[in-house]
Amino acid sequence: MLHDLLLLIGGLVLIIKGGDLFVAAAIRIAEFLRMPRVVIGSTLVSLATTTPELVVSVMSGIKGEPGLAVGNAVGSVICNIGLILGIAAAIKHVDIHLRALRTSLLAMFGAGILLFLMTLELRLVRWQGVILLIMGTVYFVWNFWENWRDRKPEDLAEAQAIEAGVTTTRFAWLKSKPGSLVQFLAGALIVIVGSHFLVDGAINTATRLGVPSIILGLTVVAIGTSLPELVTAITSSRKSVSDLAVGNVLGANIANLTLIVGIAAVVQNVPLDRKTQLLNFPAMLIMMGLLLWMLLTDRKITQREGLVLIGTYIIYLALVAFESLPHAVR
Length: 330
Description:
single chain; two-stranded antiparallel ribbon
């Protein structure tokens, strides 16, 4: 049992550190390419920060635990809105440019509703996974092209200023283009190793405790793999670039609901139980609706609303813990 817990904790630590290195390098590479911040947030950074979920999804499917992958993806969506955006807003209110995020919001809701409908028969099969993969790929390619085409001179100037601000420290080489690429690859490798430990530890711990792996995926694993989004959100909030944080969360949610779940279903058919499906998928849609209501009321997420999101997420975790308690007792 101790060995499994050490694997679980060690995997989380590696994912946190590797994700931090990976995301930072991805942002710098995007800046070197003179890409505007909204493109960086809603496409490249969101894809980079969902790398832990992607690796966990693939490894879970290979190891015969696709429920862990789906639980991780759905749990990460709930965590991204409730905990990640909640903490970012609690630190400093998050301003929203609703027009720029309208497509991402609609895509997130559409993917969430579609996934809920797909799982009504308590399973996800390969052809459904293929549909989700196609949807996710089309969205990210189209969104990238749309934002890149409509970029403004001030966006390019902003990216150039960021690149010019690279300081001459002893780690300056890592902030260069070759150094950023090396850091990017090193971070990805650390995430892969950490995900391997995390999946093994999670599967073994769930088995020993008698808890379904999807429950562990919805909670511990989801929070652990969402930490790169948390780092990005807090940093963006402190630097008053909240559009990067929100774009990152929306893009990461879309990636989780399409690419991550899609890959899990393609690798292996995913069975679900009714209690898990009736609790977690509605919770995901409720959290999305709460976010939309906040954005439509005053075009921002206030500090008080950030605390509401955090409180809602805590209530959700309590419900998941209560629902899984009978399993643990057995």
